Amino acid sequence: MGGATQEPSTKEEMPENKFYPEMDQEEPPTGRSQTKYVPSIMSETPIGRSQTKYEPSIMSETPIEYEPSIKSGTPITHGEKDNIELLGEVYHLVQGGALTQDFSILTQTRTPVLGNTMLHIAARYGRNEIVDRVANQAPKLLFMRNKNNDTALHVAARAGHIPTVKKLLEAYNNFQRPEIVKEWAEFMHWNQSHGFNEENYVSGLIDLMKLKNEQGNNVLHEAMMSKEANNIFQVFEPYVAENRQRESLSGSCYKAALNITNKANQSVLYLAVEAGHKETVILILDKCPHNVKPKGISPLVPAIMNRDQARNLNRYKIARKFISRGSMAYEYVKSLTNDIIGNIYVYMTDMLTAILDKKQEWIHVKDTHGRLPLHYAASTSYHEGVVHLLNKCKSCSNQKDKHGFFPLHLASHGGNVEVVKELLKYCPDPTEMLDECGRNILHIAAKGGKYEVVLYILLTPQLEGMINQKDKDGNTPLHLASKWCHPKIVYALTWDDRVNVSLINHRTETALDIVNGVLQSQKEKPSLRQAKRDKL
């Protein structure tokens, strides 16, 4: 019954330029940051202490005046809300202990940090009998939210206790009880004198389902981040009555799965794809309105990115534990891990296929950065995904994002030659595929140190038009390789007879001038040993 305290689920927003941060960086790393002078440990002025009036220290002769204390003998009491003994009794009860206090008093307790009620705690532990008893004796707690703005529904869904979610919905729906109707009226600001009907409670349940906490998550968001997400929609199915807007609770859930996002700009469908809940994804796609496009980040993105996470998985992490047992154990675990990664590849490719088979038009949905799913597939070297997306729409290969990058630029920066080859099939003239800085894919590869891509371009006669092409600053690919200190690429370019090493940029620099400047700056930098000697 016990369990660790579960913090509210959060999903961070995707970084501004996650997949190609170096492409936005216009100056090469210098090796040493220029920071403000920090006083040494021997400095006369203590670090971090402002020059304010003298404050007596703990050893000061000056007597310190204290606030008058509570008079001796005065009893110190707390209300039920802050009584730690009563709170301990609540946890004792929900963890299977016997009740030793008045139950109605326990319903008044709150946890000190998050402000959870007894109902929140029971929902987190999945104690349905206590949830039922609280709903009967203290129905007001059904509508109370903690300091994270969670209802008990949020907490139960986050913990993956779908039966508890069902039990709570039954309590909310018990409109035969005047106490429940009264709490609903206060929650929804209904005028009870106008009567109460089926439309009211359907609207109320829909609003309750859409309530957001501090992370912007509703009940469905929280459920998708648990392991039991596949069953959450089935809980809402029995509530099929419609309100005046012809909305049923179950129908509203499927619509909300696409058009309600949290603060990380993630829809419920996005989270379902990210968590790998394939059955739930297919259910949402089948039940959602035909012409509705998903809001927030495209659900195709996690189908692409999760596959990339599997590719980057450290397959030797587990195997290291078996090294001491001999090479056979090491090889066995390594092959086992490879199989797991391969299965994830297949699974996420199936997820991508499942979405596009039902919603092919979503291939054109752009995110806030103007990126299509093809941009993400290209940036992560997802060759199978790139092929699949191009089979659906070849024109996506000629779409720029808000940073001016084509999918081909991102593929070049990713360094996967096969993806570059695939995208070049739909590019009649690569010299026209320029980003906002006027750079072609050879510029990008040279700057990013992608030797295999550079070598492929040099060995492909149809691509030689990019070799001496200049960007808006007059830099050729050789200039950028020199500036960003990629000697292997500089060597490959300078030994190619087609490369003009005498070309100058807008600062009248040749590539050799840049190399000399880099070497000179390195000579001027003191070594670590010299820097320590100078400091002494």
TrEMBL record:
ANK repeat start-end pairs: 148-170, 369-402, 403-425
Repeat listed as a keyword: yes
Membrane topology, as annotated: Peripheral membrane protein
InterPro entries given in the database record: Ankyrin_rpt, Ankyrin_rpt-contain_sf
Signal peptide: none
Keywords: ANK repeat, Repeat
Pfam families, A to Z: Ank_2
Principal localisation: membrane
Gene Ontology annotations for the cellular component aspect, listed alphabetically: plasma membrane
Bias type Basic and acidic residues, positions: 9-21
Localization terms from the record: Cell membrane
Ranges where the record places region Disordered: 1-40
Protein name listed in UniProt: Protein ACCELERATED CELL DEATH 6
Upper lineage: Eukaryota, Viridiplantae, Streptophyta, Embryophyta, Tracheophyta
